[in-house]
Design brief:
By secondary structure, this protein is an alpha/beta fold. The chain has a domain of about 190 residues: Vaccinia Virus protein VP39 (Rossmann fold), CATH 3.40.50. A seven-stranded mixed sheet has the order 3-2-1-4-5-7-6, with helices on both faces. The radius of gyration is 24 Å and the shape is elongated.
């Protein structure tokens, strides 16, 4: 059961699905997803293990499943996506890999049995989940003991340039600021959420990608073709004023352009990995359980608390 009812609704999931469908119709921009899919395959290749049952959760299209099929580490992988059936009809003749299964499902209410999977992967999808702690808990429950989660989501510095440019433009032209760029998770919070969800051996790290565009309008067009236009519930319903758009473009070019007049756009990728707990996993020693003193291992003299290196304690 989803726990989103107990959490604020940040994202309009129905709107997100419509915008992803629009992106498919326009011809999706997939360069970022292609890079993340290859990075995910490379990261999984460092895990010396075979996974029998795997799920690709929420990733748009089948780029991740295609990349992972080349590793030889997975027997069967299914894609779980709320748009899966519609995407099959709109992919303009492009077929999914014959050795994969695709089913309709939602990242917020997973259609998965407890303890059914050896591996869950996800790419550039979980940043749009309203109840990320709940989704991570559902993933952990769906994993067999010692099963692996490996996911990438957009992080806190993503589109920071666009956020700043819009804030300045709106403040100057409209006298206030509305949420134009969604809030993204930071890496410290991501690690805490893995622990909260009950994952063992949680690891997080960050990859920052800078993409350059001829102008801010080209960036906005790319975001539309990624299906990543603002899906926030609290977004402004007013049409974007021409004066605000023009000022945003000017601010962007003034503050975030290189010497060749091309602008920069930052995409921060947060990587998450964690394992479903199992007795076979390495565990930290309990306090006081060490068999040898650190000073013995280092060949150094141990000095008690309060004792000075040059001698005993001295009254001041």
């Amino acid at each position: 059961m989803s726990s989103t009812a107990a959490h604020p609704l940040i994202f309009d999931r129905a709107l997100l699905r419509r915008r992803r469908m629009r992106a498919v119709a326009l011809g999706p921009s997939t360069f970022l997803l292609e890079r993340v899919a290859q990075d995910l395959a490379d990261r999984l290749a460092t895990v010396m293990r075979h996974f029998e049952w795997a799920v690709d959760l929420g990733t748009p299209g089948d780029l991740v499943r295609r990349a992972l099929s080349g590793t030889g580490q997975i027997t069967s992988i299914a894609g779980v996506d709320p748009l899966m059936h519609a995407l099959r009809m709109h992919e303009r003749g492009e077929e999914f890999s014959p050795d994969t299964l695709a089913v309709a499902g939602d990242e917020e209410v997973l259609p998965l049995r407890d303890g059914a999977l050896n591996l869950v992967v996800s790419a550039l999808s979980l940043q749009f989940v309203n109840d990320l702690p709940g989704t991570l808990t559902q993933i952990r429950r769906a994993l067999k003991p010692d099963g692996l989660l490996l996911a990438a989501l957009l992080g806190g510095d993503t589109l920071t340039e666009l956020r700043h440019a819009f804030a300045i433009a709106e403040a100057e032209t409209e006298g206030g600021v509305s949420p134009r760029v969604i809030p993204f998770l930071d890496v410290q919070a991501a690690g805490a959420l893995l622990q909260r969800a009950g994952f063992a051996l949680p690891v997080t790290d960050v990859d920052r990608i800078t993409v350059r565009y001829d102008c801010a309008l080209a960036l906005l067009r790319d975001l539309r073709r990624m299906g990543a236009s603002n899906p926030m519930v609290e977004r402004s319903r007013r049409p974007l004023r021409r004066a605000t758009l023009k000022r945003m473009i000017d601010v962007y070019e003034e503050r975030f352009a290189d010497c060749d007049n091309r602008i920069r756009a930052t995409f921060e990728i947060i990587w998450l990995s964690g394992w479903a707990p199992d007795e076979s996993q390495q565990k930290p020693l309990a306090p006081g359980a060490a068999q040898r003193r650190l000073s013995d291992a280092l060949g150094a003299k141990e000095i008690s608390a309060g004792e000075r290196a040059g001698g005993g304690m001295r009254n001041e």
